[in-house]
Amino acid sequence: MSRADLDKDPRDVAAMFDGVARRYDLTNTVLTAGQDRRWRRLTRQALALRPGERVLDLAAGTAVSTVELQRSGAWCVAADFSLGMLRAGAHRPVPKVAADALRLPFCDGAFDAVTISFGLRNVADPDAALAELARVTRPGGRLVVCEFSRPTLPGFRGAYYVGLEHVLPAIARRVSSNPDAYVYLGESIRDWPAQAELASRIAKAGWGEVAWRNLAFGVVALHRATRPAR
After folding, report:
1. In terms of CB atoms within 10 Å, which of 34, 80, 101, 166 comes out highest?
2. What digits encode the pLDDT tens for the residues 3-12?
3. Bridge partners of residue 226, in order along the sequence
4. Pick the CATH number of 10-226 from 3.40.50.2300, 3.40.50.1260, 3.40.50.720, 3.40.50.150
C-alpha cells in the first residue's frame, strides 16, 4: 500500500486513494462517528439545488456524495482522478467521469453548481482547482467546498490535533484497507489553512459572495460562493 506526502504528487495521491477505495465509505463513517452523512446532507442544502440543474461533484470518490446531491432532483455527475474510487462506487446510479481537478474535461459554464468535499486539500494546486471550478460554472452559479478546517475552541483544538496524530492512525489500522494513508490525512489537515484564509483564496480564484459555516466546532467548514455575473 502507498501514501502520499504534503508535496501531493498527483500520481501518489491517486495511488493512495486507489488503496483505500475498498473500505473508504466504512472508514469515513467510523472515523467521523457517522457525521459524514450529516455533512453530505448539509452540503446539498448549502448548494440550494433545484430539479433539473446540472451539478459537478468533484473529488466524488465512490460517488456516495453524488447520490446525496441527486436527491434534490438535479442532474449530478461524479468526477474523480482515482479510478479505484470510481470503480468502488460503480454500483451507484450516477454518471461518473475520470477527471483531473486542474484540467476539467468540461466546457466553460457547463454547470449550475459545483462542489468538492474533502478533496480540495488533496489537490497539488488548490487555487488553480478553484479557478477551474469557476471556469466550468455559469455566471450566477454556486460553489460549496466542504473541507476539514481549524477548530474554533482553543482547548478542543489542541486535543483534536493530538487525536489526528495518535488516535486516527490507530482506528484506521482496524478498519481501513490502507492505514498508512490516514497518516497523510492527519498531516494534510494540520497543514490546511483556516477558514478566513481559504475564503480569501476562493475569492482570488474568481468567486464572489464568499462565506462559510463551521460544523463540529470548526473541525469542518462549508464555504459557499457565487460565480459573478458577467
Report:
1. 80
2. 555 677 788 8
3. 142, 208
4. 3.40.50.150
